[in-house]
C-alpha cells in the first residue's frame, strides 16, 4: 500500500500555486509522485515524468468517478 504525506492547514483552495500538495510514496519505497489539489482541479506528476503533469478539472473528475464502479 502506498504511503501518502500531506502538510495541511485548513484553507479555501485557490490558485494552483497555493494548492494542497500530496507526496505519494510507493510501498516498496521511493517517491511515486506528487498530487496537487487546487481550485481548478487535480494535477499529477509521476516520479519518472518530466515537464507537463496530468491535469483533470473538477468537472471532468466528477464524470470519471461517476462512470467507475463503486468498491
Commentary on this structure:
- By secondary structure, the chain is mainly beta.
- It has one domain.
- Helix content is 14%, strand content 39%.
- It is built from one helix and five strands, in the order βββββα.
- The longest helix is centred in the last third of the chain and has 10 residues.
Nutshell version of this structure?
By secondary structure, the protein is mostly beta strands. The chain is built from 1 helix and 5 strands; from the N terminus they run E-E-E-E-E-H. The chain has one domain.
Q: How do the helices and strands line up, and which of them pair or pack?
A:
Blueprint: E1 3-6, E2 20-25, E3 31-38, E4 41-46, E5 54-57, H1 58-67
Antiparallel strand pairs: 1-2, 2-3, 3-4, 4-5
Overall pLDDT? 84
Shape: globular
Strand runs, count? 5
Structural classification: mainly beta
Main beta sheet strand tally, sense and closure: 5 strands, antiparallel
How many helices in DSSP terms? 1
For the record, the count of structural domains works out to 1
Low-confidence stretches: none
Helical content class = 10-25%
Beta content: 35-45%
Instruction: Give the topology string: H per helix, E per strand.
Output: EEEEEH
Cα radius of gyration in angstroms = 13 Å
Question: How would you write the strand order of the largest sheet?
Answer: 1-2-3-4-5
Termini separation (Å)? 17 Å
Structural descriptors:
single chain; 71 residues; mainly beta; five-stranded antiparallel sheet; 1 helix
